[in-house]
User: Fold this.
Amino acid sequence: MEIEEKIKRAYENSIKVKEQFFRENLTLIKETAEIIAKTLSEGGKVLIFGNGGSATDASHIAAEFVNRFKRERPGLPAIALNTDMAVITAIANDYDYSEIFAKQIKALGQKGDIAIAISTSGSSRNVIKAVEASKKRGLKTIAFTSKKGEKLISRVDYAFAVPSEETPRIQETHITLGHILCELVEDILFEIPATKKKMRQ
Assistant:
């Protein structure tokens, strides 16, 4: 196959997967953004975690909350649980790699916080254990996964399953979803009401 054809097939497939996913999940995305915004407005925080490419997505989304996405506004409390190598290696060494996120949830998570679990397979043991720990501590749970992620989907409050079995397409959709949620949360928490905009003009 020619290189140009491979490029075309990749981006067309990516667009197709995203279009189907967002068409099917519009209402759930809106509801989830409102839940995250409400949690943050009430003093809660967001704990995000995943492995490999999903770990990078977790760090990326946490950075958008803590720093800013599009608006100039105060930072929002979000922590990616895959970023502290000392914590991760200590837990893996003293206990087991499957505990690296669950033990952090037990240490940092409080009732009313939100846990966002990212897993393309939906079957990573450390992600599953962290979700179970989150439920026990009273955190709301959200999953970014795929249509094959039944183990994770069945354990969370809100599940986003990308209609694909190709890891690159799933991850591309996950980060787009993360960006959309960040933008919606900013709009909900920091948008200036129309009446105030008129007064300033």
Observations:
- Confidence is low (pLDDT under 50) at residues 195-201.
- The longest helix spans residues 3-41.
- Residues 3-200 form a domain with the Rossmann fold fold (CATH 3.40.50.10490).
- The chain has one domain: 3-200.
